[in-house]
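Lecture 7 notes: from sequence to structure.
We start with the chain below.
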Amino acid sequence: MAEVKKKVCKECGEPIQGRTDKRFCSDACRNLFHYHANNAPINYVRNVVNILKRNRRVLSELNHGAEGKVKVHREKLLERGYNFLYHTNLYKTKAGNTYVFCFEHGYLELSENWFMLVRRDEYLERSGDKEQAEQA
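Predicted structure tokens for the same chain:
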């Protein structure tokens, strides 16, 4: 007589009883397995979104001028927690200047340690959020 191979739970390794196509011994193991499988990518995305929000907040707080342009030293950005590795988009002008944006706030590197902070209100106008941004 052929020996029947016992299936084991993919999460805890306990023997599975019941239907032949079961992969987990209980709902708790099934939920835990999927939580672990999906948790790392979710945490990574959450961390990146938090960095982008912080970067936007730093640029917004430092660029408080009515014109939306302020010259700032690199150290001031760093001491407030700005992370230069993360941004939402780049904007290249016809003159060849590249602006780095974090949502509607951005900067142009003037020299090694100096940046011109800028704000593109038209980004908000396209999304219909300009009125809300002015109130904030």
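Points to note: The chain has one domain: 27-135. The mean pLDDT is 87.
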